[in-house]
Structures are given as C-alpha cells and as structure tokens.
C-alpha cells in the first residue's frame, strides 16, 4: 500500500491529473512489461510521460496503442520505442500527449510507429528537400515522379486512399519533429513550409490520380496555383487550401477541349483530397479566390486570367495574388502565370482609395467577430495573426512597386525584408516576428489536438493547461502563464499594427504614380516643376544627397521624399523647405529616434514639411535645436510651460553647472526653447493669437531670472562679501511688461535695489551697478544661445541717468520730476525677477503715478498728444509708405497703444479694472466700463492683433532677427505670400492680406483719432 501511495505521489509531481488511474494503466498487462524494461534505461517511462503536454492523455493513448500493436508487426518497433530513452520515444510521447487525432490514427494503424524510429542517414522532415516530398507522394499512387505530367498507377478509390495515407504519414512525422524541437518559435517557419510542401505533394498526387481517371487528360496542361498560406509556404496543420487553376491546350489540342478536360481534372483533384472516402478527407480545397469567385469558371486560360486582372479585379484580389505560387501540375504554365500577374500586383495600389479600402476591410473583419469570441480569436481578432499579415502585405504592396526586394509571399520573410529596407523599424520587426511565431505555434498546438480547423483559444482549464505545457516558450508553463503571455503579445501586436498599418503616409504614397515614387531624375524634374519648385535641378541635387547610398537614413528618406516633396510644395517656399530638410537630416539624419519619427509618426513628417517650407526662422532654430523636431509628433509638447515649471527647471539646470556664464546660458537655453515653441505654434496655426506673445515673454522672464541670480552671486563675491548688501529687482517695461513680446522685441527693464539696514550705502550702490551691468552683458554676450537685448533707457533721466537706483531714489525722482511720458511707461511696469517684497513696495510706489486719482491733468494730456504727433512725424523711416508701417503708420501699434494708455492714465485711478499692463486686457476693461464703445474697442483690438501678427510673421518667414524691416508690410511678392500664408490665408492670398491690413488700419485710425485727440 505504501509503495502505491508513493507512486501516486510521484505521478502527481510529474503532472498526471488523475494519478490513481495512471497507476492502473501503467500496471495494465499491455504496458507493464514495457514499463519494467524501460525503468533502467535512462529516464523511466513515467518520467518521460511527465514531460509531455498531457501525461494522462499520452498514457491512455499509449495503452490503446500497445493493445492494438500486440501480436502484430508493430509490437516489436513499439517495444523499442518505449524501452529506449531517446528521440524516437520523445517524438511518440509528444504526439500522444497533445494530439488525440494523431493518437487515434496510430491506434488504427500501429505499424505507423515505424515512422518515428531513427533510420541511419535520414534527416528531420523539417529539413527535407521539396522534391523528395513530391516524389514520395507520387510513388505512393504509382506515378513516375520524373514525368512532366505524372499519371497514377492507382486510380479511383485506391489511389485516393493511398495519397491520403501518404499525406498523413508525412503529417505525423512533421508533428513529431515539431513537438520535440528545442525551440518551437525558431522551428516554426520550417514546420509551416514542411506542411505546405506536404500539401503541394498531395495535390500533385491527387492530380496524378485525376489524370488516371479523367478520359483524354493529355489534352490539357493544368497548373495549380497556391494562394494564401499555401502559396506563402506557411500553412497550418489544418487549413483551407486556397488554389487557382490555369489551363492551356496541349500541343495539337483545341482550347475548348482543354477547358473541358481541365475542368474535369480540377473537379476530380478537389474530390480526391476533400470528398468522403474510405480514408478521411484531408482538408477543404477552396478555389473561390479565382476571378469572379464562385460565379466564375473553375478553370481559365492564362490570357483570360490576365484580361480579368487588368480590367475588373478589385484591390483585395491583388493582395491575394501577392502570395501566388505554382504548387502542382504543369510547372512551366504555373511560372508563366506568376510572371504574368506579378507586375499587376504592385500597380494595384494606384487604384483609387486602395489603401483606405484595405484598412476598411480590416476594420470590417474585426467588426464581424462575435463578441463572445473577440478575446479568443487568434486569427482575426485585435492583436491576432491578421494584424501582422495585413500590415506586412500592405507595406509590400505600397512600396513593392519600386523595391523588388520586399515582395516575398511568406509573412516572416516579407517582414524581414521590410526591416532590411527600413520600411519597419528593426526593433518593431523583431517584436512582430517573435509574436507572430508565438501566435502561429499556439494556433498549431490548438489544431493538433483534434486536427480541426480552429483559431479560438479554448476556455476549459484542462485545455489551457495542456496548451501551456505544449508551448515551452517565453516562460509559459501552464494555463495562467499562457493567458498572461498571450494577453501581452496581443496588446503589443495591436499597438504596432495600429502604428504601422494606419500610417498617414501609406495612402499618400499609394496615390503617387510609379515614376513619382521611384524619384527617377527626368520624371522627378517634371513633377517638381509642375507642383511649384522654382529650381527643379537644385531640388534634384538635394534629393540625390538625401537618398543615395545604403544607409538607414537614405532608405527611409527614399520612402518619405516622394510624399514629402508634395508637402513641401504645399508651403510658400518648397525649395527652401527641401534645402532645410536636407540640412536638418545632415545634422540628425543618423539618429534612430528621428528616423523612426519620420517613418512611423502620424503627423510629424507633414508638420515638419510645413514649418520648413514656410518659416526660415523655424528652419534655422531647428538646426540649432534639432531635438525639438520630436515636438512635432505630439502637440502637447508645444503647449506653454507654466512659470512655476520654468522656474523649477531653471533652478535644476543651474544647480548642475558650476561656471557662472554656463548658469546664465541655462536660462537663455530655456528662452530659446520657448521662442521655438512659439514659432512652431504660429506656423502651424495653433492656439489663440496671443499664445506666442505669452510664450516669448515667459521665455524672456526666465532668462532674466537666471541672469539676475548669477549676477547677484558674482557681484557679491567680487566685492568680498559673504551676502548681498541689498535686495534686487528687475522690472519689465514696454512689451515685456505687457506680456506682448514679439520675436525681435528687446527686453525693456528698470533695475531697482534696496540696501539692507546695516549695509554701507556706497558699497551697496556699487554692487547694485555691477549686478545690473552683469545682467545686461550676460544676456547680450554672443554664445550658443540667442542674445536678449536688455534696454534700460526707460529709467529716470534715460541714458544719462544711473543704470540702477535704490527704491528711495526712484521715489524721490518720481515725486519731484516725473514726466507724462514716464507715467505712460510705468503703465506697463511689471516686476519680473528678484525680491518679492521689494517688488510689492515698488508697485505700491508707482501705482499713484500711473493711476492718478482724479485723472491726468489736461496739461499732461496735451503734452502726451504733442509727443505722439512728433513721434509719428519724426520716426517714420524715409521711403516707407506710412500705410504699410504696422507700428508707426496710421492705425498701427503706436496708435492703439498710445490711445489705450492715455485712457488708462485718465481713468485708471477710478476704474481698478484698467490697472493691467496688457493692451488687450485694457481694451476689454474700457469696453466693460463703458468708457469706449464696443465697436471702437473691437476695431482697435483687431488692428493691434493683426499688426502684432504681421510683425511676427515677417520675422518667421524671413528669418531675420534684427533690423526694422519687421515693421513694414513687404512689397516683394514672395515675402508677402509667406506672411499671408503664416497668417492663415490660402495660397495666393497676399493681395487679400494687403487689403485686410489697409482696411483694418484705416478703421482703427479713425477710432484712435477720435479717442486720443478728442
């Protein structure tokens, strides 16, 4: 009894689910002798059974097999298999432990165990030669393998039974080698091709039997073309076998007779492999992929096939032809068929909406999966086999027109070719390759159990346990680990499928002609000239530089450029855009992230083409900050950063640097990023019209904050002090203070300090001057980061006054000598960097000056009107039409800002809402307080916004970051067109922009004259 319990425990440990029954089976007389003999020969039979997918299933099948083999010719070979611990026993038990169907087949024909024995000199069936399999199948039906059109010696039911038995013997050997190979994923392509070759051999034998049964069969040359997985040599154990038939008359025969005989041969062939007989049918033979499907004739001549595909075939039919391969019958005719249809396959993408229809077809397939099966469908479901196969096929069809190296009909070979050609990222291709093998191996294990066509993952726990033990890959050991791993695989496959299969680039590439895609010089030159390039020869030179060679960058750019050339042409300066793209690619063209974004991003390539062909400013800035190209992939990256976030980033960047100037450059770097974010957003038309002004201002703020922090530390150390003798403050003025900066705006500031109570005032003043001087020089010093001109001319006494003053000195000056224009300037004063308490005190000091109680005296109102008139007449540049000057001209920035500021000075003391530094905010407050009619505030706001945007667009388009030309609406056609496009006008909208500005400025001028001059 104790021995029985011990044995039961051992069997449970080995994986037997019902150990008590297993003990009884092992002690059955039919097996007992073999078990006893096997005990001392390496691993015991029990241990060997414990290694298979389902030990209970294997033991039951083994007992039945032993009983069937007893006293027969199979008894001796079966005994050898069971006793000897080697590969033959492993193959037998692996088959019995997974496949009920193959186990039943062995029980029915025990002599087949001979197939699993080692035979000296034989190789695995997974490494066979294709011709060997065909020859074996033909010999099985008594046909001559060397004959051009073999005819079986066994006809009728005898021939059918012989070919079916031969096929199943081959399938048994394939399954045995498959289930015992060290790495099932690595062996999968060999397994799939071995099954496909066994199918092709069975078709050849079935055709030989048909020739024996069909009268006058010699009148027709019949070729059987494998489609789908049959053509791709990647068949499942159980699958529909898709074929198409081609027929031609034999020499001296008539076409009508050949068609009749060919139809009879094809019908007989299908019957020989699929009809009910003494031996079970092999698999369904499906000819529905033929022209016209079920409604079309079963066989056609080659010419008829070609005519159909040239005139009437739909896109999906060409996708099916991608895998077409001769598998049986007349070899020469089969090759002629493939040669004739192959050129048509890769021109199918030029049909209207080919890619979109392929994508829609994939969505329809998913939509028709029953909800209860969606998570179990290995083939059609999300993250399943079709996701990989459709992805590979679509890329092949789109890019295979000009690249013959990616036309394999086998999914994994095609995927490898696409990766080699850089159509798919190598890492992504490796992941898809691995996951496709995993899913196919799992599919094979599911189908092997009962040899039934199924793509559904079972739900029963015992089935999942058997599958998990049968997989032996990726750490899968049982039901739970299989379920978890499958879920991960499908999630990753789905992600890559959606990323690649739905690339926006694919339908655009498909719409191009073959000559456009190929970038052939003459065709490319004509296309470039036609779509708007001014220098096609120069553009061809850039294209050649980008695409020549075998580098990864050249491969990807050969894919992209045919489409991107069109995108550049959508911009106002396509030649400049292509040149900028070449320069950018020379800087970062070899970086993996850039190339991956170009190929795989949904929006980045098009956005990049848009900004490069529109804005020289952005093109130059991207050349200096190429990592910013990644922002074009994700719109969120272009969103403004909060002041708190920028301050924290500045502090972190400065903490990592020891050199003072490097610390200043950290702030200037953040400013450069902010300028570029603003510029890209402007060119792409993102956000509110005031978005860029806010971004540019915040970027200047952070640069000033960083420079002040460093200047205080350096000036203090230079003075030999342990701590600063004063508090310090930088006050923003002008457009900086109003948060209204443009791309070429200076930073107008005031420098303020406040000596600490115990500080030496003379020393404190010297240190404060050093601080102010260092802030200015560090931001204006030439370096890798853009210069920020710091202008302190709005300080008391202007350029003649000290660069910085104490708070008390400011108070004394303003109390005694403040001028009307200084009150006006203080309307935009905004503390931007330095001590918060000092900032509050400074604002409290200036508020009575800029928002005087009782309003501005009439004498000062008249003085401001006089100054405004003088500025307008004296500062207008010579030779410039005033109507085109968006700053000083009629209705320009100056008109709006002076008008608003005068009204703020007059009413700010009584209306707190007017106490804002921004022009548009003040206009809103004037309207809300009913100080200015809504119609007039709208006119002024529209003119101010348009003028500001024109100035920015001139800088963005020209790339010029200095000079006063940004204030003048261009006359030159090209420059004006660029400005118009940046401002959202359609191509050719430069005249509309001129009219829009002149009209808006004229109306704003009328409102300003009434409000400012009364």
From TrEMBL:
Specify whether ATP-binding is a keyword of the entry: yes
> Which CDD domains does its entry note?
NT_GlnE_GlnD_like (cd05401)
Pfam families for this protein: GlnD_UR_UTase, GlnE
Q: Which GO terms describe its molecular function?
A: [glutamate-ammonia-ligase] adenylyltransferase activity; [glutamine synthetase]-adenylyl-L-tyrosine phosphorylase activity
What EC number(s) does its UniProt record assign? 2.7.7.42, 2.7.7.89
The record's top EC class is transferase
Which keywords does the record carry? ATP-binding, Magnesium, Multifunctional enzyme, Nucleotide-binding, Nucleotidyltransferase, Transferase
Stretches assigned to the PII-uridylyltransferase/Glutamine-synthetase adenylyltransferase domain: 360-501, 869-1012
Query: Locate the Glutamate-ammonia ligase adenylyltransferase repeated domain: which residues?
Result: 91-335, 607-844
Quote the protein name from its UniProt record: Bifunctional [glutamine synthetase] adenylyltransferase/[glutamine synthetase]-adenylyl-L-tyrosine phosphorylase
């Amino acid at each position: 009894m104790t021995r029985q319990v011990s044995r039961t425990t051992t069997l449970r440990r080995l994986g037997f689910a019902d150990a008590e029954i297993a003990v009884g089976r092992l002690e059955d007389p039919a097996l007992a002798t073999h078990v006893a003999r096997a005990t001392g020969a390496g691993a015991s039979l029990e241990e060997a059974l414990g290694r298979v997918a389902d030990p209970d299933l294997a033991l039951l099948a083994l007992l039945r097999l032993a009983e069937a083999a007893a006293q027969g010719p199979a008894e001796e070979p079966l005994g050898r298999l069971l006793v000897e611990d080697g590969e033959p026993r492993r193959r037998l038990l692996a088959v019995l432990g997974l496949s009920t169907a193959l186990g039943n087949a062995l029980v029915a024909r025990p002599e087949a165990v001979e197939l699993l024995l080692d035979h000296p000199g034989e190789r695995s069936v997974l490494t066979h030669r294709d011709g060997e399999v065909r020859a074996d199948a033909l010999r099985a039906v008594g046909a001559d393998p060397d004959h051009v059109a073999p005819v079986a010696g066994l006809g009728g039911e005898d021939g059918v039974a012989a070919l079916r038995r031969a096929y199943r013997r081959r399938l048994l050997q394939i399954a045995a080698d498959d289930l015992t190979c060290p790495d099932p994923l690595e062996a999968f392509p060999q397994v799939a091709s071995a099954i496909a070759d066994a199918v092709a051999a069975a078709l050849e034998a079935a055709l030989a039997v048909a020739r024996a049964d069909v009268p006058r069969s010699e009148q027709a040359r019949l070729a059987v073309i494998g489609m789908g997985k049959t053509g791709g040599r990647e068949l499942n154990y159980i699958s529909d076998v898709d074929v198409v038939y081609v027929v031609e008359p034999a020499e001296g025969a008539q076409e009508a007779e050949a068609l009749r005989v060919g139809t009879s041969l094809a019908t007989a062939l299908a019957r020989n492999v699929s009809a009910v007989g003494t031996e079970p049918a092999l698999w369904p033979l499906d000819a529905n992929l033929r022209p016209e499907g079920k409604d079309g004739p079963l066989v056609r001549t080659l010419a008829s096939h070609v005519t159909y595909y040239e005139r009437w075939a739909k896109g999906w039919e060409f996708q099916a032809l991608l895998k077409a391969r001769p598998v049986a019958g007349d070899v020469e005719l089969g090759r002629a068929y493939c040669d004739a249809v192959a050129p048509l396959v890769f021109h199918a993408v030029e049909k209207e909406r080919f890619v979109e229809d392929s994508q829609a077809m994939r969505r329809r397939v998913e939509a028709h999966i029953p909800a209860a099966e969606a998570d179990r469908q290995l083939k059609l479901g999300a993250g399943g086999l079709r996701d990989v196969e459709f992805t590979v096929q679509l890329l092949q069809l789109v890019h295979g027109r000009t690249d013959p190296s990616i036309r394999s009909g086998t999914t994994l070979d095609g995927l490898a070719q696409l990766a080699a050609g850089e159509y798919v990222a190598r890492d992504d291709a490796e992941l898809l390759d691995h996951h496709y093998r995993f899913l196919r191996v799992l599919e094979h294990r599911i189908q092997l159990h009962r040899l039934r066509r199924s793509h559904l993952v079972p739900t029963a726990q015992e089935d999942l346990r058997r599958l998990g033990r049968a997989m032996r890959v990726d750490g899968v050991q049982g039901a739970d680990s299989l379920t978890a791993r499958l879920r991960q695989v499908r999630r990753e496959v789905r992600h890559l499928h959606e990323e690649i299969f739905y690339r926006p680039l694919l339908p655009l590439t498909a719409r191009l002609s073959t000559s456009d895609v190929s970038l052939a010089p003459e065709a490319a030159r004509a296309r470039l000239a036609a779509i708007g390039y001014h220098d096609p020869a120069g553009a061809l030179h850039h294209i050649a530089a980008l695409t020549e060679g075998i580098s990864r960058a050249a491969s990807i750019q050969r894919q992209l450029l045919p489409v991107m050339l069109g995108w550049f042409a959508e911009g106002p300066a396509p030649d400049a855009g292509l040149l900028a793209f070449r320069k950018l690619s020379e800087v970062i063209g070899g970086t993996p992230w850039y190339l991956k974004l170009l190929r795989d991003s949904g929006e980045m390539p098009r956005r990049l083409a848009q900004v490069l062909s529109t804005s020289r400013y952005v093109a130059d800035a991207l050349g200096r900050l190429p990592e910013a190209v990644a922002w074009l992939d994700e719109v969120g990256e272009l969103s403004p950063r909060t002041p708190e976030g920028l301050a924290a980033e500045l502090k972190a960047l400065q903490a990592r640097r020891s050199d003072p100037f490097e610390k200043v450059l950290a702030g200037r770097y953040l400013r450069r990023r902010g300028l570029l974010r603003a510029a890209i957003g402007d060119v792409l038309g993102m956000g509110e019209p005031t978005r860029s002004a806010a971004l540019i201002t915040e970027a200047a703020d952070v640069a000033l904050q960083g420079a002040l922090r460093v200047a205080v530390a350096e000036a203090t150390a230079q003075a030999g002090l342990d701590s600063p003798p004063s508090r310090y403050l930088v006050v923003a003025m002008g457009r900086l203070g109003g948060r209204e900066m443009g791309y070429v705006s200076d930073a107008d500031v005031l420098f303020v300090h406040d000596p600490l109570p115990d500080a030496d005032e003379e020393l404190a003043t010297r240190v404060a001057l050093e601080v102010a001087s260092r802030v200015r020089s560090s931001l204006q010093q030439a370096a890798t980061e853009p210069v920020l001109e710091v202008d302190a001319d709005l300080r008391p006494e202007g350029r003649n006054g000290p660069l910085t003053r104490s708070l008390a000195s400011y108070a004394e000056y303003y109390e005694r000598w403040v001028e009307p224009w200084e009150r006006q300037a203080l309307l935009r004063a905004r503390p931007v960097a330095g001590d918060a308490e000092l900032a509050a005190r400074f604002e409290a000091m200036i508020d009575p000056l800029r928002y005087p109680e009782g309003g501005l005296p009439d004498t000062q109102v008249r003085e401001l009107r006089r100054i405004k008139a003088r500025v307008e007449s004296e500062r207008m540049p010579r030779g410039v039409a005033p109507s085109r000057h968006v700053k000083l001209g009629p209705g320009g920035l100056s008109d709006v800002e002076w008008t608003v500021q005068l009204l703020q000075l007059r009413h700010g003391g009584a209306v707190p809402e007017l106490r804002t530094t921004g022009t548009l905010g003040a206009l809103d407050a004037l309207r809300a307080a009913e100080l200015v009619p809504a119609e007039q505030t709208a006119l002024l706001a529209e003119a101010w916004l348009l003028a500001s945007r024109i100035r920015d667009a001139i800088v963005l388009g020209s790339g010029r970051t200095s000079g006063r030309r940004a204030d003048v609406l261009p006359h030159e056609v090209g420059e004006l067109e660029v400005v118009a496009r940046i401002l959202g006008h359609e191509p050719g909208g430069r005249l509309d922009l001129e009219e829009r500005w002149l009209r808006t400025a004229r109306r704003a001028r009328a409102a300003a004259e009434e409000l400012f001059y009364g």
